[in-house]
Amino acid sequence: MGARVLVTEIDPINALQAAMEGYEVTTMEEAVVEGNIFVTTTGNRDIITGAHMANMKEDAIANSVSVVNIKSGVDRFLMPNGRHLILLAEGRLVNLACATGHPSFVMSNSFSNQVLAQIALWTDNATYPLGVHVLPKLLDEEVARAHLSQIGVKLTTLTGTQAEYLGLPTEGPYKRDEYRY
Question: What are the entry keywords (predicted)?
Fold first, then answer.
């Protein structure tokens, strides 16, 4: 959307990926003096500290003196240095605390995926013994295929020769001529 995005990261692989995608990767100490909106995506603590907040711009929006409740999920804090910070969702998960819900189509995709995952886990104990598993892309594709017509999407179908050339399996839930890309 044209925003300048700074990324702070502790993992070298994630930092490299972010840099390769064109994002500026820096430290939180350097980012706080430049940013206007701060979003944390970790379950860890002290990602944004009081020292960080003291260095943020006036009316920066942060996931975590005096406080004024602007509206549900939005509070404006007066910091000791005279600056104000806007805190969303009391520093909690914004998507849960401030959400007003998803459209039914989005929920249908999500719930369909959950149901197919539960069926796979329940019926295929050999592939999915008790534990945590990454479910196959095939389930996501099945959910997508079931929903595409509702939004007017038409997929191109591979010919048998094209599917064979790509090495797609000839056995399984979809016949070779049903693969679409």
Answer: Hydrolase
